[in-house]
C-alpha cells in the first residue's frame, strides 16, 4: 500500500536511476515505503546539510542530537584524517595507544567532580549496557550480590541493547524480543501536560512523582535487592520530557538512602545541550555514573563512554588479586584511535569556542521563538530547556504519528529545515552554533507549515 501523503518520490534526484535500495535495511524505518528511494543527504557543513540534488537544509536536530559543534568541523576532521594516516587501529586490551589515555583524561576533566574513570565503547546503547554491567558487578565485588534489580522509567530510551531495552520504557522496543533482562521495574515518567503546559524551563509540578520510587522500593521490592536506577535527566527521544523542579534531587536522595547507584543517561544531554557540560552540572545533581556518546566525538566517528565515580572503579581494584582481570568487559573498538582522536579534538573545540556558554546564551532567544508557536493550530504543549525543545501536537485519533510526521516532511522538503518527530511531538536540538537568524528560520518554517496544515483524514496511512 502506498503512503497517502506520498512525498517519497518527488524531487530531481540525479541518483534516482542508479541507487540500489534492495540491500540496506534502514533502522527504525517503515522500509516498505522507501522501495523507490529515500531522500538523500549528500554533504554537510556547519548548520547545514546539502541534499543529493543540491538543496540546502538547515539542521534543526544536530543530526540525531549529536553534531553539537556543527557539521564537518575542520579541527575534528583534521584530527581524524591525521590519525587515520598515522595508525588505523590498535588494541586496548592489556595495552593501548596515547590518544585513548588523552581522551579519557580530557573527558574526566570535563565531567562533574568525583567522576574520574572512563570506560569507552562505541555508541549510546553500549554505554548503557556497560554502565548496567558495572553497577551489577560493583555490588557483587563488594559482597552485595543480592542487588540484581535494575530500575528505569516509562518512556525512557536507553538504546537497543538487551540491557537498554529492558530498563527503557518503550513497549515497541521490547515486545518482539522476549523478557530481555529479568527483574526490571519502571517508574512513571513525569510528563503532566494538564498541570504544566507551556512551562518554560523546568515544570513546577510533579516532584512528588519521585516519592513513588521509594514507595515502590518498599512495597514491591526489598530495597537491598536493587542495584541501580537509570534515568535520562531529560527524556529526549520520547518527546522532551523535563524533570519537574526538585525531582532529580529527590531521586538522588532516595538512591543514597538505600545504597542504590544512580546512573544518568546523558547520551543526549551531554556536551552542552543544556548550556553546561552535562545535565548533572546544570541540575546540580551528581550521579554515580554518566553514560554518553553522540556529542562526545561530535558524531564524526562513533564512540560512547561511561564516566564512573572513582570509588566505584576502586572497589573493583581492591576486590581482585593484582594479576586478575577486574571487570570482564570490553569491545574490540574500545578507545578506537580514530574515535579517540575525534574525542580529543571535539572536547577541545567545545572549550576553545566556548560552545556550552554559547548555547546557554542562545537559550532565552530559542525559548522565546519556541513559545511564539503557542496558539497555532494543533499546538498542545511546548517544552524547552537549553537548546532542546519539544512541541507537542494534537494527534490524529488512532494514528499517533500522523500530524507531526506530516509537518516533518513538509519542513524537510518544502521549507528546507530538518526537524525530528517522535509520536505527536516535534523535537528540536540544533547544533550549539545556531545563530538568531537560524533560530528564526527554524521556528518560522514550523509555524508556516502548522498554519497551512490540513486536517488529516483518519483513514490515512502514515509511517
Ligand atoms: N540513550 C539515550 C538517552 C539516547 O537518546 C540514545 C539514542 N538517541 C541512546 C541511549 C542510544 O544511543 P545509540 O543510538 O548511539 O546506541
Automatic annotation (TrEMBL):
Keywords: Aminotransferase, Pyridoxal phosphate, Transferase. The keyword Transferase applies. GO terms for molecular function: transaminase activity. It holds the Pfam family Aminotran_3. Its cofactor is pyridoxal 5'-phosphate. InterPro entries: Aminotrans_3, Aminotrans_3_PPA_site, PyrdxlP-dep_Trfase, PyrdxlP-dep_Trfase_major, PyrdxlP-dep_Trfase_small. The keyword Transferase applies. Coiled coil: none annotated. Belongs to the class-III pyridoxal-phosphate-dependent aminotransferase family. This is Aspartate aminotransferase family protein.
Amino acid at each position: 500500500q502506498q503512503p497517502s501523503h506520498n512525498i517519497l518520490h518527488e524531487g530531481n534526484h540525479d541518483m534516482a536511476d542508479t541507487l540500489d535500495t534492495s540491500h540496506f535495511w534502514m533502522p527504525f524505518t517503515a522500509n516498505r515505503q522507501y522501495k523507490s528511494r529515500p531522500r538523500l543527504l549528500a554533504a554537510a557543513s556547519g548548520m547545514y546539510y546539502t541534499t543529493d540534488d543540491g538543496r540546502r537544509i538547515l539542521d534543526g536536530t544536530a543530526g540525531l542530537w549529536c553534531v553539537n559543534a556543527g557539521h564537518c568541523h575542520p579541527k575534528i576532521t583534521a584530527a581524524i584524517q591525521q590519525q587515520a594516516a598515522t595508525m588505523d587501529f590498535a588494541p586496548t586490551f592489556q595495552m593501548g595507544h596515547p590518544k585513548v589515555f588523552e581522551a579519557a583524561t580530557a573527558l574526566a576533566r570535563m565531567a562533574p567532580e568525583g567522576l574520574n574513570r572512563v570506560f569507552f565503547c562505541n555508541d549510546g546503547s553500549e554505554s548503557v549496557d556497560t554502565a548496567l554491567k558495572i553497577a551489577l558487578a560493583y555490588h557483587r565485588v563488594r559482597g552485595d550480590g543480592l542487588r540484581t534489580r535494575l530500575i528505569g522509567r516509562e518512556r525512557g530510551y536507553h538504546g537497543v541493547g538487551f540491557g537498554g531495552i529492558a530498563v527503557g520504557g518503550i513497549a515497541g522496543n521490547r515486545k518482539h524480543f522476549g523478557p530481555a533482562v529479568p527483574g526490571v521495574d519502571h517508574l512513571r515518567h513525569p510528563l503532566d501536560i494538564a498541570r504544566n503546559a507551556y512551562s518554560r524551563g523546568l515544570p513546577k509540578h510533579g516532584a512528588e512523582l519521585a516519592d513513588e520510587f521509594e514507595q515502590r522500593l518498599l512495597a514491591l521490592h526489598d530495597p537491598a535487592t536493587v542495584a541501580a536506577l537509570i534515568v535520562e535527566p531529560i527524556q529526549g527521544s520520547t518527546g522532551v520530557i523535563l524533570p519537574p523542579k526538585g525531582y532529580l534531587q529527590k531521586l538522588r536522595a532516595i538512591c543514597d538512602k538505600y545504597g542504590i547507584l544512580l546512573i544518568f543517561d546523558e547520551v543526549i544531554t551531554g556536551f552542552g545541550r543544556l548550556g553546561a557540560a552535562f545535565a548533572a552540572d546544570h541540575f546540580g545533581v551528581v550521579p554515580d555514573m554518566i553514560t554518553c556518546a553522540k556529542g562526545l566525538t561530535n558524531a564524526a566517528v562513533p564512540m560512547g563512554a561511561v564516566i564512573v565515580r572513582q570509588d566505584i572503579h576502586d572497589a573493583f581494584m581492591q576486590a581482585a588479586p593484582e594479576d586478575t582481570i577486574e571487570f570482564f568487559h570490553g569491545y574490540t573498538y574500545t578507545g578506537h584511535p580514530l574515535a579517540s582522536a575525534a574525542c580529543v579534538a571535539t572536547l577541545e573545540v567545545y572549550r576553545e569556542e566556548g560552545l556550552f556558554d554559547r548555547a546557554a546564551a542562545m537559550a532565552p532567544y530559542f525559548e522565546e521563538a519556541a513559545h511564539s508557536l503557542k496558539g497555532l493550530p494543533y499546538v498542545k504543549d511546548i517544552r524547552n530547556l537549553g537548546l532542546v525543545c519539544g512541541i507537542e501536537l494534537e494527534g490524529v485519533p488512532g494514528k499517533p504519528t500522523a500530524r507531526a510526521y506530516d509537518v516533518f516532511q513538509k519542513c524537510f522538503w518544502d521549507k528546507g529545515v530538518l526537524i525530528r518527530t517522535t509520536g505527536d511531538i516535534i523535537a528540536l536540538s540544533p547544533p550549539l552554533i545556531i545563530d538568531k537568524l537560524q533560530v528564526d528560520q527554524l521556528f518560522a518554517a514550523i509555524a508556516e507549515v502548522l498554519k497551512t496544515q490540513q486536517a488529516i483524514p483518519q483513514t490515512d496511512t502514515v509511517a
